[in-house]
Amino acid sequence: MKSLVVIAIGKNTALACREQLHRLLGNQVNVSHYYAEGSLPHNIKADLILFASQLAYRRTKPYVNKTCPILIARRSINYHEVNKLFQISAGTDVLLVNDSLASANQTIALLQTLGIDHINYYPFAQGLISYPRLKIAVTPGEKERVPDFVDEIIDIKARLIDITTLVELLLQLRLLDLYAEFLSANYMQDILQLIKNGNQMIYESNKMKTQLETILNTVHDGIIATDEMRQISVFNPIAEKLLHVQAQNALHSPIDKITNPNILQIFQEKMNSQEALLKVNGHHLLVTVSTLYPETNDNSKVYTFKDVSEIRRLEESVRRKLLQEHNVARYTFAQIVGQSKKIRQTLEIAKKMSHSDSTILIQGESGTGKELLAQSIHNASPRHAGPFIAVNFAALTENLLESELFGYTEGAFTGANKGGSSGLFEAAHKGTIFLDEIGDAPLPFQVKLLRVLQEQQIRRVGSSNLIPIDVRVIVATNQDLKPLIKKGLFRQDLYYRLNVLPIKIPPLRERVDDILLLCKVFYQNYTHSKDSNQATMYFQYIAPYLLKYNWPGNIRELQNIVEYLLNICQNKPPHFTDLPEELQSSCNFKPSAAKNKNQLKASICQEIKQANQENRSIGRRSLAQNLIIPENQVRVLLEELAKETWIISQKGRSGLKINPLYENKQYHTPDSCDKI
Ligand SMILES: Nc1ncnc2c1ncn2[C@@H]1O[C@H](COP(=O)(O)OP(=O)(O)OP(=O)(O)O)[C@@H](O)[C@H]1O
């Protein structure tokens, strides 16, 4: 099951958003929530993190795992509740209470945009020093924040996550196909409610009619309403556009007098609260008809319709955003953790490569830090002040690739923006473009990429002009490209063009010396601890297992395991049995079972002897690591060896020493000394 976390500033907003999402996605997605005013755990992780507002994002982003995809919600007014405000007489002063001053101001702006401006709003949030002591408060779901001096509270309930955010969210969770229909039906419900509220208002005053019109004019769907006399009472601008009919020619006409075939088509549909797909002027429209007051004899109806290509356009625009993952390089070489010879050599080579402009091909298993390295190279290069554009081929449809990377001209394809658009290569001008997962690039695109690399110029889709570009290209792959070439999935000529400066990042299992260091760094990052000893102690019992594990997911996996352990064992160092199942079962070595106690003592003496000869200090921890046994077991064995006078334990840096009497002897137990 996918996971989604909503983070808001206040509890009520968090709960309302969670509730809205749970109602929509409950079967497919596990939705949980946090709020900045409550206790936030560190390193919040999910398939997607949704911030209820920009402010929530700014305040809580340090608590969120950097690798998780995030989205900041756009929230719209809760149409079901807003009509309560029309009961307040015009000119009344009210406090608008919300969880922060910024969100109070935002709600005021939203209400005013919707035309609900017959009352005077004064923002109020906790911590505000000066505010009028008014008797009426309006709040979007934050009743308990309303100050005591207020007599009447009008709760218009929390603002809901809007349709465009929901579509983005479903896309990111790869659930849009499953929910598209349901989503549009739900959305229609909201619009319907809006009209219903509006129709009541119309009877009440002209001012409210204007307000309703403002709302109707701002929605993105075509809306036609008919009253109980079967006359057209609403015909909004989108309806005009989609049906190619001017509102003034349709409004107030009885529907049986309508002759325009486009409108007729809508009315003739024998639908009852159902959806139908109509083709009008070459566009596919999804039409819904609903009866406004089913419980009465009133036959007022609302027809809503939208161009079905709209959702598609939205989808494309989100894909575009996904495609361009980042445009700033955050990492530098100094942030790449590693002391092993292999990683030091890799970094040395990469630093040299950063000075040139030639194409770099980074190869390495997933999670080894390829993107980290690409960013560091950019930041160390003469181009560091220019853009860093990261593109992930695995997230792309073939369709979109060319236009997004090379740009397009006006009219190049249906849906192309007016005036055309530049592509990511142009966006990376004077900087670096990072093409990740290059092994996934479709073959036809590979040909075009090769041409661009050779000619250093791009041609926008639909254009015959060549545009020169000054871009450094870094590509990465976790697949071995040679077998792909053999299978005809990767072009050999492109491979040679990319492989100018090849660099391999070794997998973590080949740089064992980095494992504990990385564990400590991630421990310190998560716990914000500055004490490196504390970090060392934390891993004392499990270090041998971590060192022996083969880390198929590399550093990303290690990062996850440290986080897992910190959740499972917050206050005490974890033991073997605390490790994730997968790691435990892959540890098919049972160290203590492999050797009996005396064999282990002999090995310990041997290790100490060797360290003494090499003038190296040796202690409990390094013994545990070398012999792959838990540190507390080493402690017990050392105590016995000390009692048996085989070793001398010295305080301070010099560590353990072998008793000079036994320097040239193999360890034996006291009762077997006669055998030696
Ligand atoms: N040497 C390192 N020091 C600190 N963090 C690292 C190191 N190497 C990788 N990481 C962290 O590991 C995670 C994975 O790194 P990155 O995304 O660069 O890997 P990748 O090889 O590009 O993975 P993929 O092939 O799956 O895209 C990131 O969170 C990154 O910050």
From TrEMBL:
GO BP, one annotated term: regulation of DNA-templated transcription
One GO molecular-function annotation for this sequence?
A: ATP binding
Question: In this protein, which residues make up the domain named Sigma-54 factor interaction?
Answer: 336-567
Query: Does the entry feature the keyword Transferase, yes or no?
Result: no
Task: List the protein's name.
Answer: Transcriptional regulator containing PAS, AAA-type ATPase, and DNA-binding Fis domains
Classification via Gene3D superfamilies: 1.10.8.60, P-loop containing nucleotide triphosphate hydrolases (3.40.50.300), PAS domain (3.30.450.20), Winged helix-like DNA-binding domain superfamily/Winged helix DNA-binding domain (1.10.10.10)
Q: Name one Pfam family in it.
A: PAS
Q: Which key words tag this protein in UniProt? A: ATP-binding, DNA-binding, Nucleotide-binding, Transcription, Transcription regulation
